[in-house]
Amino acid sequence: MGTIDGLPPLREVIRAHDLVAKKQLGQNFLLDLNLTAKIARSAGDLTGCDVLEVGPGPGGLTRGLLAEGARRVVAVEKDARCLPALAEIAAAYPGRLEVLHGDALDLDLARHLTAPVKIVANLPYNVGTELLIRWLSPPVWPPMWSSLTLMFQKEVAERIVAKPRGDHYGRLALLAQWRCNAAIVMTLPPEAFTPAPKVHSAVVHLTALPEPRFPCDFNVLQRVTAMAFNQRRKMLRSSLKALKPGIDAILEGVGIPPTARAEEIALEQFCALARAVQAA
Ligand code: SAM
Q1: What is the Cα–Cα distance from 83 to 89, expressed in whole angstroms?
Q2: What is the separation of C-alpha 45 from the centre of its chain, rounded to a whole number of angstroms?
Q3: What distance in angstroms lies between residue 60's CA and the mean position of ligand 1's atoms?
Q4: Which tens digits make up the pLDDT trace of 216-274?
Q5: pTM more than 0.70
Q6: Cα(115)–Cα(15) distance, rounded to whole angstroms?
Q7: Buried b / exposed e across 226-257, counting CB within 10 Å, b at 16+?
Q8: What are the tens digits of pLDDT across the range 165-210?
Q9: Ligand 1: which residue has its CA nearest to atom 20?
Q10: Distance from the alpha carbon of residue 101 to the mean position of ligand 1, in angstroms
Q11: How far apart are the C-alpha atoms of 188 and 274, rounded to whole Å?
């Protein structure tokens, strides 16, 4: 059966290049080009944008991004076995696909991409959260990218968009929603992937706000939320005890009862607390 871009179907690509999935690289491939085009479309209009893709693998999503009109795709892949398959895509889209062989954790965005930039990826599960936190914490805001459209395990996606008092609410929700609008735009069953993972997955779309929702220092917010949620069922007066002497008074000063628990506290209150902790 033919494909819209004239390249072979992904099952053939995988067979031809012997791309047996490696678990340690988080390889769960998407082989349905209609689905990868749909994920690419959920990133919004790609024309005129550079797109960073982490982990292109055999290139299903890469092909979706190119077919949906991305000006240029920069795809960073750790597994050298995928490079010949990706070279075939680059040849079909001259000058529009740059493949970098390496670890996405080592990538300097500014060296390879020109604004406007969107990041779109079916992330390897083992480094997904770490990459998200890095993209959320550049020294200067707004960041180089305007949006992130990322596939995670559904449970991680729920942690990113969670609201106070929910089971998934925690540090990841606060860090993401402090500087971004975040929503789940698609959920996928295990069978959508080859091989099928044990869990469901979801695509989260985050758009960068021009400035953080409430003022405070990123590192202080990180520290406060990490400590507060480390023992999420404990009262804040005890989970934050080691943060600063006189934490009860600091909490009361920003209107948070010292007996409250982290999961009850909204983003605005955490930002007020981070400012007060820094000032104390
Ligand atoms: N994009 C492809 C798709 O949707 O079918 C593959 C997605 S698969 C979930 C994750 C991909 O990330 C694999 O190709 C894997 O080799 C690659 N990968 C794993 N760790 C990586 C890292 N640290 N840096 C770059 N790529 C990585």
Answers
A1: 10
A2: 19
A3: 11
A4: 999 999 999 999 999 888 999 999 999 999 999 999 999 999 999 999 999 999 999 99
A5: yes
A6: 36
A7: ebbbeeeeebbbebbeebeeebeebbeebebe
A8: 999 999 999 999 999 999 999 999 999 999 999 999 999 999 999 9
A9: 25
A10: 11
A11: 37
Tell me whether residue 64 is exposed, middle or buried, using C-beta atoms within 10 angstroms of its C-beta: 0 to 12, 13 to 18, 19 or more: buried
- Are 123 and 55 in contact by the 8 Å Cβ rule? The answer is yes
Is any atom of ligand 1 closer than 6 Å to the C-beta of 104? Answer: yes
Give the distance (Å) from ligand 1 centre to CA of residue 206.
20
Would the CB of 211 count as within 6 Å of ligand 1?
A: no
Whether the CB of 14 sits within 6 Å of ligand 1: no
Q: Are 173 and 232 a contacting pair, CB within 8 Å?
A: no
Q: Whose CA is nearest to atom 12 of ligand 1?
A: 55
Q: With a 6 A CB cut-off, is 131 part of the ligand 1 pocket?
A: no
> Cα torsion for 91, 93, 98, 99, to the nearest 10°?
-60
Type of residue numbered 122: N
Instruction: Tell me the CATH class for 218-279.
Output: mainly alpha
Q: Where are the domains of the chain?
A: 10-208, 218-279
3-state secondary structure at position 139: coil
pLDDT in tens, 87-146: 999 999 999 999 999 999 999 999 999 999 999 999 998 999 999 999 999 999 999 999
Assess whether the region 10-208 and the region 218-279 belong to the same CATH fold: no
Q: Is the CB of 64 under 6 A from ligand 1?
A: no
* Distance in angstroms (rounded) separating the CA atoms of residues 15 and 17: 6
10-208 belongs to CATH 3.40.980.10: no
| Interval between CA 30 and ligand 1 midpoint (Å) | 11
**Is the minimum distance from the CB of 60 to ligand 1 under 6 angstroms?**
yes
The CB of 122 under 6 Å from ligand 1? The reply is yes
